[in-house]
Amino acid sequence: MSVRLGVTDRAAVASLILERIVYAVNWYNLAAVFSFAASELNQNVSGLGFVTATFYLGIGIFQVPGGILVAKIGPRLTAIYGTTIASLAVLLTGFASNLVEIAVLRFLVGLGMAFVFAPGVILITRFLQKGSEGLGVGLYNSAFYLGSAIGLSGWSVLAGAVGWRNSLVTSGALGLLTSVLLLVSIPKDSRRSGFRVDLPHVKVVLFNKWLIAISVAMLGLGVGNTVVGNFMAYYVENAIHVGVGAAGTIASLASLSALVAAPFMGRLFDRSGNAKQLLFASGILMAFGVGIAFFGTIYSAILSGILVGLAAGAGFTFGFSAARAANNIDPEYETLAVSWVNSISLFGDSVPPLLFSFLVIQYGYPPAWLCLTVLTFVLMIPVLFAKVSKRKQVGDY
Length: 397
Fold this sequence. Notes:
By secondary structure, this protein is mainly α. It is 80% helix and 0% strand. The protein has a single domain, classed as MFS general substrate transporter like domains (Growth Hormone, Chain: A). It is built from 18 helices and no strands. α3 (63-73) packs across α4 (75-93) and α12 (253-272) runs parallel beside α14. The longest helix is centred in the N-terminal third of the chain and has 32 residues, at 10-41. The chain is globular.
């Protein structure tokens, strides 16, 4: 399948891709360095579950406010503000003295990132030729997976060399640089005169049943992606007894697999558009990938990462592309549709880290992997029975 991309503003697209890479580094770098932090702060897997959950709470709660802010001030400024907030919080995490401070700062990282993703989706598709929107979402997601791989593998090595605190300060500073890059390279938003955020239009988006079904499916994908992305490095290092550098590399396989899959899956969506079947198939692959980790060997961990990455690269690209296409009222609310889908899935993703760490402590890793496998599968079922929304106006609801 050929992948062609018509770009109307190369500098803007390049800055968005670079921002997305650093964004992902700051998403996953704490998971990569947590074994160092845990040793210093006398923590275990439950501490990782706690700070991961607070991050997902922050990014989930503020998705919809971020989408409304975009409708008010535009995606460019919203993305810049969000990147700045998240990057400052990451930088300050390098100076935290206890787990509670880290948890508060990770909540702020999530808050800032909630203002970045959906605006980024809208911006990158704005600078592509019509008909390449799904591919654009795929490339934007690929940049995230590249950054995830760098964060999981590179930051574990960097933490070993310069200390976990300095590694977080470094990535926070890189995030601030990308804020400046967005400021100078993204053209100012052309706001429609007289536009104002209208509550009835917001309600149309929030009560769209098809968007809610997409959100539940994305939550199912997120269950597997969250536990593998945030716990695999720690699991491989502490349960399979692999060195920290190798553990980070194994954990990054999911991101690398997703990086390869996402742009091709975006093109597949552009050509097919059959979001139901595409999303469900991705969810089944995700559940199978999580379940493979049950066997507790280095080979099962490697295979789990690869399958989970392929499923994430496909499923999230399908889901966000479908959410963007489902906006059926005003172009100014396009970001809100994507943010709403993201908010439900990410807010829900605050539960799996707590559930997984609890099950590990009570019963061990194999039952924990198995439980999350079942949960992933169950959450994928509703999308098969949802009716794809057609274009309507406010008065039709």
